[in-house]
Design a protein that fits this description.
The complex is a heterotrimer. Chain B is α/β, with parallel strands linked by helices. Chain B has 4 helices and 8 strands, in the order E-H-E-H-E-E-H-E-E-E-H-E. Chain C has 2 domains: 110 residues, Roll (Urease, subunit C, domain 1), CATH 2.30.40; 307 residues, TIM Barrel, CATH 3.20.20. In chain C, helix 2 runs parallel beside helix 3, helix 4 crosses helix 7 and helix 7 packs parallel to helix 8. Classes of the chains: A alpha/beta, B alpha/beta, C alpha/beta.
């Protein structure tokens, strides 16, 4: 199907067909990274700016590679997250970009809705690389691609997402994506880290890890930030590991062929035991490879500042 | 706008004979199958390429490597079309360096598809030679591109379409001409 | 017939609705020397006559929760522009909140507000004084002195009085002057960093939520203190069902407690937040549909005493930001009547008389401003509105300096047509006249 969007701001608003188109296109573009000359001329002459208000190495690297492999001119603008401290408001930043004639803006910001704010004010295509605790759509898409490669279809597959759900944009985007593709999703974590009313997103909630991972095809492990303990949400990291850490012993309660995923970066020894992270169940590195392909697919499918490209009907 | 069928230019037998002849011509010109690789352009050139590879195998008992090329990302017309075509997979499971690449497409028209294919192949490496085989040449070149092997020359008018149908995709092997009539 | 008559004039043929006297009839009103001289059906020669046939004539509305931003943020609103907006909205008086810069925490500042209002204002301004000096929550203000200067109530609104001992002292001390303490109930520990209501919407949007218990637990605390030491307590912008229940029980105990609700908490709910529009960001936040239902019933049952706008102007450059950085608050003076009439009267939840109680009689009673009724000899503070007027909100046409409103483009029924303050027509069909003009 044709994707008639100017921007990619979240998974919530995508239809199942749109997700399938993105995954199919990603599959085709994957081999470009395997060629001797890892480049195709599609975005030649187009300008992409990576506007990162929050630090990131991996997502930024992945986007940069995707942009360059499509021959785009890509550059990075980072600034401190608080626009008030910086002095230039997000509004002015958006206006300046417009004046510079940019085709794509990839935005990562600590406040939900910041990419939407920019997208409303620019003709360029805006891609959300993570807005606060709201969504991280490209992460969810690369996760879905990895699962599709593994299982063929996601219909009926049982997934459990474990960890700091309330603060996780990755969890939210993945819940949208997985439920739209027909998977059965459970979220598991300490009650203090479980957001209010999350069942309304179509998931089961569990506070007990053992029950939650029984019979699941996929365990998606979220990063636990050490600062959570200081925020009073958890009494100690030690107790978190005891209750929710994914260790080889824990996996005994899971299916034989369960797969382990993680959005990275991993806190080895905290939410994920190194033996599991590097073990036979893990497809974590595969997720990273798919990240570049998915981001290339998004850049291909969005209109990229060509207003004539987005036609209705 | 209406499209009506004008006539069948090649039927099943004619298509088969043309492909067999092309296979022989390839072997003749290259003095055998050594160093040959065959690449078909999606989305019908790849099926034609498979057939030619099979005919070559029957004649020379050599299995030449085959690849499929999707030229979507190399097109030159993205600013003038209003949709994003589906990108198919490109699969070149061999090294093109020092090889003679036989590039196959169903219809040669303006030459832009072949131009895109040439750029893409060269991004994979430096072949010795690239030779072009097409089932139908309908004229109206816009770039200096010429085929080495032709199934049939079919002179056409601008408002005509030449469509190659393939059993694997369309259920029948034949080449038809259609006429496009614009409403006044 | 002059637009703004200089001498006596009659407003003729309007439907007078006066809940205090239980009157609802078509009649004429003769106004002169700032007072209502005569009510009845009469013909007067040599007196200017204004035809208000088909319109509703009521005692003047009072908004008991307005932020006029002067002194300190005159870029957002001034006493002049704020009272102009009030006049357009059909209000004859506003109670101005004390959280200006500097804070209204002494009699000098109270006099400043009153003077500015008298010089350049369009409606009466009843200054609310701060409960604590600088609204810092440490020391009580000189309430007696401030009331002498014209203060009508006390509030640290903008902030909660989070120290319970301070709340106790405020309720005790205010009994000297018999004025109510208006409280912004919010437990900052529970609501810290919160942006919107805590419910499925906040979970979906990844925004930190402000739970209902942030409001209700503090009301429960203050009701107990009120019961223990006495005094008068008024809950500002009550927004959740739990809070309503607590107030209901407190009233059963015959405690001197009152509460208000804003038009936006009746017209909107958290599911309106489909985009990250900062014009939907206020404190308390938009709550759930269930809360809105309960609040409407609370108005019907009389548990909620009045409707007040919490008019909070903000500069465009501050609101036009990513949601998390934008300040809380929306303006409300120019849309209040239309919203309330459309949501409550048109839908049959309140009668017009009950609307007048909520917007005129009760606010005046709570603030000790006397009985709001239209009697011969009383001050001529009159609101005249057209209950059938259908209009579309256009924020660009607001007379307030700010236009941070979520109601742009809304089609409403009910609009202020004429506003009379102390016998002077300050607003009439798009034109204004200051109180101070001759």
């Amino acid at each position: 199907m044709k994707i008639k969007r100017k921007d990619l701001l979240g998974i919530e608003e995508l239809s199942k067909e749109e997700i399938e188109t993105i995954l199919e296109t990603s599959g085709s573009l994957k081999e470009i990274s395997e060629r001797a000359i890892r480049k195709v001329p599609y975005l030649r002459g187009k300008t992409v700016v990576n506007l990162f208000f929050e630090p990131s190495t991996r997502t930024l690297a992945s986007f940069s590679l995707a942009e360059k492999r499509l021959s785009a001119d890509s550059f990075n603008l980072s600034s401190s997250s608080s626009s008030v401290l910086k002095g230039e408001t997000l509004l002015d930043t958006a206006r300046n970009l417009e004046a510079m004639r940019i085709d794509f803006v990839v935005v990562r910001h600590s406040l939900p809705g910041a990419p939407h704010f920019i997208a409303d004010r620019l003709e360029a295509s805006v891609i959300n690389a993570g807005d606060g605790t709201h969504e991280h759509p490209t992460q969810a898409l690369l996760d879905l691609l990895s699962l599709k490669e593994k299982f063929g279809t996601l219909e009926g597959k049982k997934v459990v997402i474990v960890g700091d759900i309330v603060n996780s944009r990755v969890a939210r985007s993945n819940i949208w994506g997985l439920t739209k593709m027909g998977a059965d999703v459970t979220v598991c974590g300490p009650p203090t880290l479980m957001p209010y009313g999350i069942e309304e997103m179509g998931v089961e909630v569990s506070f007990e890890l053992r029950k939650a991972i029984e019979g699941r095809d996929v365990i998606y492990v979220l990063r636990i930030q050490k600062e959570r303990q200081m925020g009073g949400m958890l009494p100690s990291i030690r107790e978190y590991i005891e209750l929710y850490g994914i260790t080889p012993e824990r996996l005994k309660d899971a299916k034989e062929d369960v797969i382990i995923m993680h959005p990275g970066p991993i806190n080895r020894g905290i939410e994920l035991d190194p033996r599991v992270a590097d073990g036979k169940h893990s497809i974590i590195l595969g997720q990273v490879t798919n990240g570049v392909a998915v981001r290339m697919a998004i850049l291909y499918l969005l209109s990229g500042g060509q207003s004539g490209e987005v036609s209705e009907a | 706008m209406t499209i009506k069928e004008k006539g069948i230019v090649m039927d099943e037998i004619q298509v088969k004979r043309a492909l067999v002849r092309i296979a022989h011509e390839i072997l003749e010109k290259n003095k055998g199958a050594e160093k040959l690789v065959i690449i078909g352009i999606r989305s019908r050139g790849d099926f034609l390429a498979r057939r030619i590879k099979e005919y070559i195998r029957r004649v020379e008992s050599v299995d030449i490597p085959i690849g499929i090329l999707d030229i979507t990302l190399y097109r030159d017309d993205f600013t003038s079309i209003d949709y994003k075509p589906i990108v198919g997979k490109t699969e070149i499971p061999f090294d093109v360096k020092d090889k003679v690449v036989i590039l196959i497409d169903d219809v040669l028209y303006t030459g832009r598809t072949v131009r895109a294919a040439l750029d893409e192949i060269i991004d994979f490496g430096r072949p010795n030679e690239i030779q072009l085989a097409v089932l139908v040449d309908r004229g109206h070149r816009e770039l200096p591109i010429r085929p080495d092997y032709i199934g049939k020359n079919v002179p056409t008018a601008d408002n005509e379409l030449v469509e190659v149908q393939i059993k694997e995709v369309d259920g029948v092997d034949r080449v038809v001409i259609r006429e496009v009539e614009h409403e006044n | 017939m002059a637009k703004f008559p200089k001498h006596k004039f009659v407003i003729r043929g309007g439907r007078m609705i006066d809940p205090v006297q239980g009157i609802d009839e078509v009649t004429d009103i003769l106004i002169g020397s700032g007072k209502i001289e005569k009510i009845g059906n009469f013909s007067k020669k040599n007196v200017e006559s204004l035809d208000v046939k088909g319109l509703v004539v009521t005692p003047g509305f009072i908004d008991m929760h307005t932020h006029l931003r002067e002194p300190g943020r005159e870029d957002e609103e001034t006493i002049e522009t704020g009272t102009k907006a009030a006049a357009k909205g059909g209000f004859t008086g506003v109670a101005s909140m004390a959280n200006t810069n500097p804070v209204i925490d002494n009699s000098g500042m109270v006099r400043f507000i009153k003077d500015r209002a008298m010089q350049g204002g369009y409606v009466e301004v009843f200054p609310i004084g701060a409960v604590t000096k600088g609204q810092e929550g440490n020391e009580l203000t000189e309430m007696f002195d401030m009331v002498k200067a014209g203060c009508c109530a006390f509030s640290d609104d903008g902030k909660p009085i989070d120290n319970s001992l301070m709340m106790r002292r405020a309720l005790e001390y205010s009994q000297i002057v018999g004025k109510t303490i208006i409280v912004h109930e919010e437990d900052l520990n529970l609501t810290s960093d919160g942006q919107i209501n805590e419910d499925f919407i906040s979970t979906k949007m990844g925004l930190k939520g402000m739970p209902s218990i942030g409001e209700s637990t503090m009301i429960a605390r203050d009701v107990e203190i009120l019961g223990f030491v006495g005094g008068k307590l008024h809950i500002a912008h009550l927004s959740v069902k739990e809070s309503l229940e607590i107030v209901r029980q407190a009233k059963k105990r015959k405690l001197d407690i009152s509460c208000e609700v804003t038009p936006h908490h009746i017209a909107l709910n958290s599911s309106c937040l489909v985009t990250f529009d900062s014009n939907l960001k206020m404190s308390p936040p938009l709550r759930s549909r269930k809360d809105v239902e309960v609040l409407k019933k609370g108005l019907q049952q009389g548990v909620i005493d009045c409707i007040a706008t919490d008019h909070a102007p903000h500069a465009l450059f501050e609101k036009e930001m990513e949601f998390g950085s934008a300040p809380f608050g929306i303006v409300g003076l120019e849309t209040a009547l239309g919203i309330v009439y459309t949501e409550l009267v048109e839908s049959g939840i309140l009668s017009i008389a009950e609307l007048v109680e909520k917007m005129s009689v009760n606010p005046a009673k709570i603030l000790g401003l006397g009985e709001k009724t239209l009697k011969e000899g009383s001050d001529a503070n009159i609101t005249i509105f057209d209950p059938n007027k259908e209009w579309t909100v256009d924020v660009k046409k607001f007379v307030s300096k700010s236009n941070n409103s979520p109601f742009d483009g809304w089609k409403l029924k009910g609009k202020g047509v004429m506003t009379i303050v102390k016998g002077k027509i300050v607003y009439r069909e798009g034109e204004f006249q200051k109180l101070a003009s001759l």
